[in-house]
Amino acid sequence: MKTTCIDDFGATIKKRREALGLNQREFAEFLGLREGGERTVGGWERGEHQPSPAKLSAIESLHLKVPFKRSSKPHVFSFIDLFAGIGGIRLPFQQIGGKCVFTSEWDKFSKKTYAANFGELPDGDITQFPSEAIPQHDLLLAGFPCQAFSQAGLKRGFFDTRGTMFFEIQRIISHHQPKAFLLENVKQLKGHDKGNTLKTILSILRGDDLPDIPVDVPMSDSARSSLSTKLDYDVDYRVLKASNFGVPQNRERVYIIGFNRNKVSAAEKCGLAKQILDKLEKRTASTKLGDVLEKNQSVDPKYTLSDRLWNGHKRRKSEHRAKGNGFGYSLFNHDSLSCNTISARYYKDGSEILIDQSDINRNPRKLTPKECAAIQGFPKNFVLDAVSDVQNYRQFGNSVAVPVISAISKEMLPYIKT
Which residues are catalytic? Predict the structure, then answer.
């Protein structure tokens, strides 16, 4: 940024902030300023003082074009986006005419990526927002935290505070009674605690007799109080495979759909959620990993494994093989039909998905963030450089396969339109 006057700095900073669609408080958080940072931003814009060279560089590098800003066109339904991550669930529902009226995400890096793509900085911890403070909406979306149920985690379920976030969803549904909801979680939710965790979730959403929830399960007072209000939703779930929706990844997730029987006439007859999920479960598609991979010779060498790391991978795989198990790295190439599931830990060593580079006589490499986005089905113009590679890997590992959500959104649309 080559300017000669502090006033020029102020005008430029204001222009870039407004291009992102953020107010001064949100812009301060976006830049990682401390509490009260909006006063600093205001001072910059008024020309009272100027940012440090590092902050100037960060501001200068910001995209002026936000690719998925909310449209000014009349919307056909409203929705909220909880545990939003980087917006993978929001995107398809926005594209079919929905208006997002509230977003919640606590991770500061995910919030930066979200703001760079949607021009909105998500609000923070959902437990800090009373139900009445959340706008009325037709649809609730939530990819609620999965670590409490995942294979990689301790699988403590409701006794993990991340697992109890479901009860925050329940209290919001109880208060607002939206027409419908879509919840997403890991496949392991289906079998957690011999199926009792999922059974409890479905029972609460359907309005069955309240299951026995131990008093020591951690949840907010407002969430526990809201359990006394019975819901009345037609609810079903399925484990859907991303590869059946054209995504070259062996990713399976639990999807729970519910329709308010008092607001969606088709749900009064029961079975609407089941009908939609039965249809989606029958989907098939052919995939090829090479369709979304970059050519090896064009990939930055920094993604290629060092000799030391590659030799370590081979040694550990050999040791596991000797013990009779299949643990170790997994190697794929451009002819592979699909790859393993991208996980949030991919940034550590990439062992679950390594790309063969024997065609250019190099060690295997990790996926690039751009390839991770493509494997999850994100649009090509999705902004990636708001955060580091490490954070991109975490974010895409925690995100959703967008084409699966897109297919679900189109099936739900006729029943959620205002």
Answer: 146
